[in-house]
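Sample intake sheet
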Amino acid sequence: MFQRTTAINKLIKLTQRKRVVQGGTSAGKTFGILPLLIDYAAKNAKTEISIVSETIPHLRRGAMKDFLKILDWTNRFKNENWNRTLLTYNFENGSYIEFFSADQESKLRGARRHILYINEANNLTFEAYHQLAIRTSKYIWLDFNPTAEFWAHTEVLKEDDSELIVLTYKDNESLSETIVRDIESARDKADTSTYWANWWKVYGLGEVGSVQGTIFTNWESIDKIPDAARLVGIGLDFGYSVDPTAAVAIYKYNNQYILDEIIFQKELSNREIANLLKDYRVMIIADSAEPKSIAELQSYGLKVLGALKGKDSIVHGIQLIQQQSLLVTKKSINLIKELRGYTWATDRNGQPTGDPIDILNHTMDAMRYGFSHIIQMPGYGKYVIR
């Protein structure tokens, strides 16, 4: 159900051409901006609005999904107005809202528009933003979680026609009590390590943080898996109600490995997991902490083994993966998010503990399980395959 939140009431007061919306997790940034754009398009004939993000899969799972929800909740959605091929919604008055990704070069340097909205702007380059901005005649909206300072701070906010607003979860009254408790639990941990202090600063308070000690920097994204790539294994991390089940397919391509997120979903039964993986005729390496789940998957005909972790196995597994050249499919949204945020844990004095953070690591664990079987290197990965 659509709810007019404090976030919306704050956003509607912005007047400058460039509107920079910085905020923590669940602050209502996207759900605040989208209804304003819908309203503007409906009331101002022949308005052209572009909503842009890093990739099309990112848009489909984020801003586009929320956009269609809002239209439905406000009884504005008309099926005949939604072009699923062009990803464009047309209004009766000649206005339209289109969705495209920043990796579509022709779109960046293509047609002009009246209003631009870049969702999760910190995932785009300044050049991509600049090409879009110079082709926008009226307003520009940018939103993001402030994990670190980037071009919105160093370039856009230095311009006279820009303004900044900071939103937090407290501006979003539509959140359930459970989500609020989960967010505020980080506040209680902020004194225990620099990681939690930084997390609370960024996602709780909506303040600019810093990404320190990122573990994996040896990867880049690709559009699709080449035909010549060979599937060599799958890593599987079990979850259910609290944590998602995550599965990562690993392909060998020349001297590189390609990673493709194939499962990232909560509340999947083992039978549902088996159905999702049944067409991948390759060895699946899963967390051996779930022997019953492994046995059940085996009973459905899957080839599944458990990766047993020995002393320092997590760190050894990380070191093993760090030595590889990795390519990640752009549709692997959660895998990319975790790769960007997976860091070394620190103590309250900011000193590394030698272990990775134990949060946002579902695809990271799945990837590590898969590599434990695929690559055998002396002195690395003290895994025992059962």
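Comment: Residues 377-386 have pLDDT under 50 and may be disordered. The longest strand covers residues 256-265.
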